[in-house]
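Attaching the record inline, Q. Sequence:
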Amino acid sequence: MSVLDSKVPSGPLAEKWTKHKNEIDLVNPANKRNIDIIVVGTGLAGGSAAATLAELGYNVKTFCYQDSPRRAHSIAAQGGVNAAKNYQGDGDSVYRLFYDTIKGGDYRSREANVYRLAEVSSNIIDQCVAQGVPFAREYGGLLDNRSFGGVLVSRTFYAKGQTGQQLLLGAYAAMNRQIQRGKIKSYTRHEMLDLVLVDGKARGIIARDLVTGEIERHSGHAVVIATGGYGNLFFLSTYCMGANVMASWKAHKKGAFFANPCFTQIHPTCIPVSGDHQSKLTLMSESLRNDGRIWVPKRLEDAQAIREGKLKPTQLKEEDRDYYLERRYPAFGNLVPRDVASRAAKERCDAGHGVNKTGEAVYLDFEAAIMRYGKEKAYTSGIKDPDKATIRQLGEEIIEAKYGNLFQMYEKIVDQNPYKTPMMIYPAVHYTMGGLWVDYNLQTTIPGCYSAGEANFSDHGANRLGASALMQGLADGYFVLPYTIGDYLSDDIRTGPIPTDSAEFDEAEKNVRDRIEKLMSGKGEHSVDYYHKKLGKIMWNKCGMSRNAKDLESAITEIAELRKDFWENVNIPGSSDSKNQELEKAGRVADFLELGELFAKDALQREESCGGHFREEYQTPEGEALRDDENFKYAAAWEYKGEPKDAVLHKEELKYENIEVKTRSYK
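Structure, as predicted:
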């Protein structure tokens, strides 16, 4: 086991990034034209990085498995993007955003990276406004803000309930400009199947054309992995169906350490599971917790009656409702961080107070907000004595203006009108804080291989605050990576084009073809989804919202056995030399079956509770997470050594010199 060097610059925290930018090497514009960069993934992190690098003059190749870069899963983000603009005048600052992010991550993220994130957050808003992103505005013309969990200020900029889509369209437009100029070559419907190392440096990838089945070689002077998270490991999640860990896992198997795989976020505001045949879960934005109040029936008999359809939630009196987040966490109420809200929902449902047929749902109720907004609107409209119907109508109009597309989506899926009856929600896998280990420059342990956005581990610790995913992706792509990658590439100005007819490319392509052939040679007893669902149930039941040593040990054994059966008996119809979506899925599930075991191993060795990692053996008498800062205040970075059971742990000790490490409290 070794200690990792994060390459954090010296000096005062607030000056580190400026000092670092002033000291790193640069590549002059004429030399940038001779350097090729591969960007894998075209979501907010990859798309913004590709556009910015091409604008600087580098030659960029982008790869995505979707039919267009604009279909990356960043498009599904709903609630907003954080920035310390303090338009509200409610006390926000760069330091406050930094503090909230460190605290929200339960003191398991790197101090310098998080401060830099807060520092450049305001630039993100300026950049996106210049691109034409239609952020919501308040009556005075300034950009509007709303609150998200874990903070006491309003710093979240939003575009109704489709912020991710609008931000991605901005990055996509910037990319398109560079595609038209010839500075970006866009490879859609391509999947990276391996990373190619030459003399120990990342110099290219092996990709498969998902339409023709052709295996291709692509070279570059550096490779950026920006392919998002690995939440589909659980099968049921809020991720798009195609989201996978393949690019990150291939880099890991070539020498990039994988950090904190067990740090997975469970989002509290998702539409509950409806049946065994479901293949995806749908997120309802955390922004809804600004106005929705979360509750369950106080009495078990009322919860039972609601589950049986004998009682409607609207028939339950106020005094018979348990607004449990407001009761347990009065300072933050319904806007506690996601991990806290998720565990609280699970606790209430486990105690028998769940409200849907499965008993795994709580209510998110907008009645109070509708009536409050309606009264305000009536008074400001000059209606002195409005009746209840008028108040409700005006209130519903305001809620529709703020959240209309989310309410419409809920009604289409659940077939209930959330203006008239409370939404039902339950926690689901939503984001992964773990990922490829990167230093301050966003470089992995492989020289020339960088990782941006959710694909890396650096900014969120053990739990991500809402609206920080878009912030990190855009910060990495627009404002961090374009600086730091130049420091590395300054040594490559005389290298010339990287040839693809080398022994290293030959070997990488052979390994890819051999793996595909092995996948296709299974006995054909079970489908890919059969194995994916089995893996998902193991992960959710034994590595989900709560974990314990016994379950984690059995999960490690079960996943290893499932992986062995997969390689022997998976059924993949069709051929490998044409379009074959079952083959695509099989490759991704094969990687999940390895990552899942490492995930459980990481969770087993971390004998504490922190953020999204809740070990039942380590909790306070009140049921809150109990950290062990003396023994586990580090990022766990795993080195590949063959089988997941043989992975070697390396530690990056986390030092907090500018913030007091203390037990989180939202009470």
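The longest strand covers residues 423-432. The chain is about 40% helix and 15% strand.

More tomorrow.
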